[in-house]
Design a protein that fits this description.
It contains two helices and eight strands, in the order E-E-E-E-E-H-E-H-E-E. It is an alpha+beta fold and 125 residues long. It has one domain: 60s Ribosomal Protein L30, Chain: A (2-Layer Sandwich), CATH 3.30.1330.40. Strand 4 and strand 5 form a beta hairpin.
Length: 125
């Protein structure tokens, strides 16, 4: 059985998808952009600030779903410029210090709304 997760503490979907879906003890969080939920747009213009906003959005969805960062088993990071990997990683390691999740990181041609970073997350109980 699947459960659709939605919170006003993370940005609304900008297309036909859910913020997250929980199924059989696993939470699948859609790729989170650095959109500030209260204003509905990207405010930050550097990689560290954008990554911090992405993690704030992920945190809100995890909390709404009854999960924590300790439950995260996989992250996929999309960067509009691979040169931003170091800055993203500095923020990323604040959230995952021990028993880190598996991770992939890709440079992509472009991200929605001109974002520098997008992160999708899978968590399990």
């Amino acid at each position: 059985m699947k459960k659709i997760i939605n919170t006003t503490n993370a940005p609304a979907a900008i297309g036909p998808y859910s913020q997250a879906v929980e199924a059989n003890g696993t939470l699948y969080i859609s790729g989170q952009l650095p959109i500030h939920p209260s204003v509905g747009k990207i405010e930050a213009n550097d990689i560290t600030s954008q990554t911090e906003q992405v993690f704030a959005n992920i945190s809100a969805i995890l909390k709404e779903s009854g999960y924590t960062f300790n439950n995260v088993v996989k992250s996929t990071v999309f960067l509009s410029d691979i040169a931003d990997f170091g800055g993203m990683n500095e923020v990323y390691k604040k959230y995952y210090q021990t028993e880190c999740p598996a991770r992939s990181a890709y440079a992509v041609k472009a991200l929605p709304l001109g974002s520098l970073v997008e992160i999708e997350t899978i968590a399990a109980k």
